[in-house]
Amino acid sequence: MSDASAKGMERPARATLLLAGLAVLTLYSFLRGQSVFLQPAGTIYYVVDYSNGFVRRALIGQLYMLFYTRAEAAQAWATTLVMHRLTSFLVLAGVMCWFWAEVWQRRQFAADRLILLYALFAVSQFYPTLAATTTYLDSYVFLLMLAAFALAARGKYVLATCLVAIGPLIHELVVVLSVPLLLMLIWRHGLRGLRRPDVAVLCLTPFVVALLAFHFETTHAVALQMQRAPIPPDWRAEMAQWQFGNTFRGDFAMMLHKLSQHPIRAIATMLAFLLPTIAMLAVAVPAMKRRSAALLTLAALSPLGTLLVAWDLSRLVVITQFAAILSILFMATSGENRVPAASMAPTSRRAGWGFVAALAMLPLIYGYFDHAVIFGNGVMENMPGLSRPMLKVDAVLRATIGGSGT
C-alpha cells in the first residue's frame, strides 16, 4: 500500500476519533449540571397564555395551553423537563455540527486553533448552567438564536429575521444575543451595509419586537393570569412583579444598588465566570486582523450589558461564551474571510489544553449577586474560599439542599 493511500485511510480515522472525543467532552460538560428537578422561578412560564390579553414571555405557555389545562399543570411541568432536555441537546448538536462542518471543510485536522476554541467553549460553565436551569426559557432562546446565526452566516437573512421576530415573544433575552449578531453583520457588510433593506430589517427586528412587547403588556392581563395560575397564592404577587411586571428603569435602579454594595467583589466574581470567554478570545484574536478581532471581542463581551438590568450573575455571564462561539463560527463560515486555521505555537497549544483540563474539573457554580451555590451529585454545597457576602448560601438555599437549586 502506498504512503498516500495509508494517509488517506488515516485521515477519516483521526477525524472520527477527534469528533468522538469532543462529543464526549460536550456531553460530560452538560451532564455535570443535569437536573431532574423543576426550577420554581420558571414554572410560571408554562401556565400563562394570551386569554386575558397580551403578556410578555407567554408564547411558550400559550403553546403548552393548547395541550394542557391549568388543572393539568403537573403534566405540563413534567413535559417541560422533556422539552428542556430536547431543546438543550439540539443546541449541543447544532453547535457541534456547525463547528465540525468548518473543521471538515478545511480538510485538515491540524486546525488546532478552532478545535481548541470549541473545547474551551464545551468545558465552560455554559452547558452545565443550561442543563441546570430546567424551567427557564433559555434553551428555547439559545436554540432559536443558534439557528438565526447559522442562517445569517449563510446569507439567509429573511429566514433569520423570522426567527428573531419570534424570539422576544418567548423572552427578551433574545435581544442579548441579537447584539453579537448585529456586530457580525457589521463585520461582514460594514456600517454602510446596514442600509441594505434585508440587513437593516434583520438588525432592527428583535429590538423593535421587544419594545412592542413591553409596550403592549398590561398589568390587568398579568393580574388575571396570576389569579388563574396554579401556583401558591403567596407567589402570585412576586411572579407578577419579577417575571412579567419588571421595567428597565426599575431593574436598572436595583442593579445599581446591588453593584454599589460590593463593587470589587462583584467585578471579581464576574471575571471568574468570564475566564473561559477571555481564554477563547486569547486563542482567536491573534489569528485575526484588528477589525475582526475588535468586533469579535465586542460581540463576545456584549452580553455583560445585561448585568445592568438583571441579577442572575453566572447565568448571564456565561452567555458570553455562547456569543463568542456563535460569532467565531459566523466568521468561519464567511467565505474568503475565514478565521485562519494556522497551527498554534506548541507552548500556547499546551497552555490552552491545560486550561481546558482545569475548566473540566471545576464544579458547576450558579451565582447570583447575593449568594451562590455549587451543584454536585444533586446537592448544593457552600462555596469554599470565595468572598462573602457576595457568594454566601443563605437560609433559603440551605433549606433546598437535595433539591434542584436556585
How is this fold's topology laid out?
Elements: H1 3-32, H2 59-64, H3 73-106, H4 112-122, H5 126-132, H6 138-153, H7 157-170, H8 174-193, H9 197-216, H10 219-228, H11 233-244, H12 248-261, H13 263-284, H14 290-301, H15 313-317, H16 319-333, H17 346-361, E1 364-367, E2 372-376, E3 379-381, H18 395-398
Antiparallel strand pairs: 1-2, 2-3
Structure write-up:
With 406 residues, the chain is an all-alpha fold. The chain contains 18 helices and 3 strands. Strands 1-2-3 form a 3-stranded antiparallel beta sheet. A hairpin with a 4-residue loop joins strand 1 (364-367) and strand 2.
List how many beta strands DSSP finds: 3
Largest sheet: 3 strands, antiparallel
Overall pLDDT metric: 83
The protein's oligomeric status is: single chain
Outline type: globular
* Count of runs of 4 or more consecutive helical residues: 18
- Distance between the ends: 60 Å
How do the strands of the widest beta sheet line up side by side?
1-2-3
> Rg, please?
22 Å
| Share in helix | 55-70%
Structural class by sheet pairing and helices:
mainly alpha
The percentage of residues in β strands lies in: under 5%
Low-confidence stretches: 1-9, 376-406
Order of helices and strands: HHHHHHHHHHHHHHHHHEEEH
What's this entry about, in short?
The protein is mainly α and 406 residues long.
